[in-house]
């Protein structure tokens, strides 16, 4: 049994055409409350449909998937907890091992003995509860299966699978987010470096963008991005972020029973199929993007016989990409950095010791101060890393120019460090003045601009006092062209 947020259940029933009166009666909720939930959902979907720009889409999205809380004030404490069930399952497996070893015997572990074991281990549970569940666990019948036949657009199944690849010479485990439609025999996958909640959300957004529509029902197993926690034996509380996705896109959620992979057998087999057909023959890549491109091309071949084009006509209405970021407030350290998920990212140095707001997406994060964007960084994979922008430290460097030469921020931009040691070594103030002049540039563009300025200055110096005859001008022009080619990578690069 899935424990569904009450507001989400009202929305689900409303989408299925149930009246306010019926919803109120079945769920024992006041009609005014049902009407208020319905009206807010309808207003959110209308605002989303009428949105003309990204700002209006963002406002409508936040209205539609506003976080809701579960009411746990009246929930009774359960003694048959998941921990008790797990311990009893362990005892049952040992009992079966004993049966295999001894054959017919009269030393069966009784419910009373199980109760005594649990009591000695500190579990607060009554004998009758133990006897009831021990009997049910022992007498579990052989399972029968019912063959299913789904309509086009009705159902798609999701799962993560591992794949080991060598990228940039390093062997690591990567994760395939795999979708499979049992009706059309279509499947799609994307390669990630982890299985965190931002990746889980991103996999949905990319899949729906690829399709141009949404399936009526999405099927998952009991992964942590789907189920927040188990309550008793069969009750599950859904993850709030999944409820937000379902509310926004309008799909229904189906979570399989524990240890019942057969209930989403299509995607279970597709994970293996994708791994074997896409990464058995080729597993070495120069970059993650190259591996993703290889996966996309391989899937195109594997899906040639699917009925996807026919199924697209049965999908739910397309919506703009869901981009509700994770929001948080962080303090700026004395090094003008913020700590996010065990990594550090730079912000402008005037924000030291202040609080800033973060919007974190799957691959990048944006930093705001006083409602203005002040920094944007790609996320760092792993932990204890630094991503620093030298333009964030110009104010401090002007006061402490001697700190530049051995600074981590300079070392993180190899091209910039090379230019500094080649042209400005011993003259940090001059280099910092150039950084301030071009602080709107970053990365390769900044490196190219500084190298170009040095080139112009050198050419000017070399030609002071040289007669401006035609031959000298031609020679000068040819030399300048060679140096510009080198600057922009057409010949040996300067940075």
- Give the CATH topology of the largest domain: Nucleotidyltransferase, domain 5
Q: Please state the structural category.
A: alpha/beta
Radius of gyration: 31 Å
| CATH homologous superfamily designation of the largest domain | Ribonuclease H-like superfamily/Ribonuclease H
CATH class of the largest domain: Alpha Beta
Give me the count of strands. Answer: 16
How many DSSP H or I helices? Answer: 18
Bulk shape: elongated
Coiled coil: 285-312
Pfam families: HTH_23, Mu-transpos_C_2
InterPro entries: Homeodomain-like_sf, Integrase_cat-core, IstA-like_C, RNaseH-like_sf, RNaseH_sf
Organism: Suicoccus acidiformans
What report would you give on this structure?
45% of the residues lie in helices and 18% in strands. The chain has 495 residues and is of the alpha/beta class. The chain folds into 4 domains: 82-138; 150-322, Nucleotidyltransferase, domain 5; 326-387, no CATH class; 394-487, no CATH class. A hairpin with a 2-residue loop joins strand 11 and strand 12 (343-346). Helix 1 (6-15) crosses helix 3. The protein starts with a strand and ends in an 8-residue tail after the last helix. Belongs to the transposase IS21/IS408/IS1162 family. Residues 285-312 form a coiled coil. One of its GO terms (molecular function) is nucleic acid binding. Keywords: Coiled coil.
Summary?
The protein is built from 18 helices and 16 strands. By secondary structure, it is of the alpha/beta class.
């Amino acid at each position: 049994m899935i424990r569904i947020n009450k507001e989400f259940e009202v929305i689900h029933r409303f989408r299925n055409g149930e009246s306010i009166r019926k919803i109120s009666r079945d769920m024992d909720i006041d009609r005014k409350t049902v009407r208020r939930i319905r009206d807010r959902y309808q207003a959110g979907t209308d605002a989303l449909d009428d949105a003309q720009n990204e700002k209006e889409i963002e406002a409508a999205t936040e209205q539609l998937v506003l976080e809701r809380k579960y009411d746990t004030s009246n929930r009774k404490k359960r003694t048959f907890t998941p921990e008790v069930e797990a311990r009893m399952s362990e005892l049952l497996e040992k009992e079966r091992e004993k049966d295999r070893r001894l054959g017919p015997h009269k030393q069966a572990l009784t419910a009373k003995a199980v109760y005594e074991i649990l009591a000695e281990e500190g579990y607060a549970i009554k004998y009758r509860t133990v006897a009831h569940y021990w009997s049910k666990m022992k007498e579990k019948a052989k399972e029968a299966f019912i063959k299913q036949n789904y309509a086009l657009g009705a159902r798609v199944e999701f799962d993560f699978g591992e794949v080991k690849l060598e990228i940039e010479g390093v062997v690591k485990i990567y994760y395939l987010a795999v979708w499979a439609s049992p009706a059309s025999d279509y499947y799609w996958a994307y390669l990630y470096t982890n299985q965190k909640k931002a990746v889980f959300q991103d996999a949905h957004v990319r899949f729906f963008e690829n399709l141009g529509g949404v399936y009526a029902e999405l099927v998952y197993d009991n992964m942590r991005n789907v189920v927040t926690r188990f309550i008793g034996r069969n009750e599950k509380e859904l993850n709030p972020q999944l409820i937000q996705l379902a509310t926004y896109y309008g799909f229904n959620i189906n979570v399989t029973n524990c240890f019942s992979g057969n209930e989403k057998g299509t995607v279970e087999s597709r994970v293996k199929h994708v791994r074997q057909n896409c990464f058995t023959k080729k597993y070495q890549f120069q970059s993650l993007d190259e591996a993703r491109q290889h996966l996309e091309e391989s899937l195109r071949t594997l899906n040639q016989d699917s009925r996807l084009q026919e199924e697209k006509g049965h999908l739910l209405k397309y919506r703009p990409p869901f981009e509700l970021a994770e929001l948080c407030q962080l303090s700026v350290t004395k090094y003008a950095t913020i700590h996010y998920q065990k990594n550090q990212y730079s912000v402008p140095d005037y924000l030291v010791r202040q609080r800033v707001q973060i919007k974190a997406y799957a691959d990048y994060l944006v930093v705001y101060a006083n409602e203005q964007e002040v920094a944007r960084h790609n996320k760092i994979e792993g932990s204890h890393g630094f991503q620093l922008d030298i333009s964030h430290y110009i104010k401090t460097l002007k006061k402490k120019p001697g700190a530049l030469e051995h600074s981590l921020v300079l070392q993180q931009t190899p091209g910039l460090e090379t230019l500094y040691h080649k042209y400005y070594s011993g003259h940090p103030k001059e280099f910092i003045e150039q950084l301030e002049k071009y602080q709107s540039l970053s990365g390769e563009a900044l490196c190219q601009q500084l190298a170009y300025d040095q080139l112009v200055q050198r050419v000017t110096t070399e030609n002071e006092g040289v007669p401006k005859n035609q031959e000298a001008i031609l020679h000068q022009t040819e030399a300048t062209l060679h140096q510009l080619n080198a600057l922009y990578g057409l010949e040996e690069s300067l940075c």
